[in-house]
Inverse folding.
């Protein structure tokens, strides 16, 4: 019983299991086979090996995670944050702009379906896309000049 209490207080699960195994087999528990320091060292060595294995596995997982698209996004985000750039607000602005364009297209098609605009107006496209198209043409024209 003394050996069980000592192993329990030390958190030595391996020793507790060994005592239990010996008890089921009817073997006597030999207190003199190992002293406390040796048993603790063996226990710590086992725990260290487990931790080393976990560390290697986590290191490999981290390396794999960094090589994904998500890992690249995190890396880019951290670099931008160091430079004072707020990626989240930039992306939010872009998404809002895209939502506005889609809503404009929706309203434009709805107006055509409800016969609020003519075919000529419909063929020219929604106003938001016209301005984007004009900007692209201007950029294309300036590129052609140079």
């Amino acid at each position: 019983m003394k050996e069980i209490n000592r192993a329990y207080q030390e958190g030595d699960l391996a020793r507790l299991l060994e005592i239990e195994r010996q008890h089921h087999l009817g073997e006597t528990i030999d207190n003199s086979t190992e002293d406390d320091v040796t048993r603790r060292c063996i226990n710590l060595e086992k725990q260290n090996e487990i931790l080393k294995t976990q560390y290697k596995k986590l290191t490999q997982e981290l390396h794999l995670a960094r090589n994904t698209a998500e890992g690249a996004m995190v890396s880019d985000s951290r670099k931008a944050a160091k430079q004072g750039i707020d990626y989240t607000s930039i992306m939010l602005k872009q998404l809002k702009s895209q939502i506005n364009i889609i809503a404009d297209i929706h309203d434009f098609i709805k107006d055509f379906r409800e016969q609020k605009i003519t075919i000529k107006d419909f063929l020219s496209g929604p106003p938001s896309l016209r301005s984007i198209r004009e900007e692209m043409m201007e950029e294309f024209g300036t590129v052609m000049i140079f």
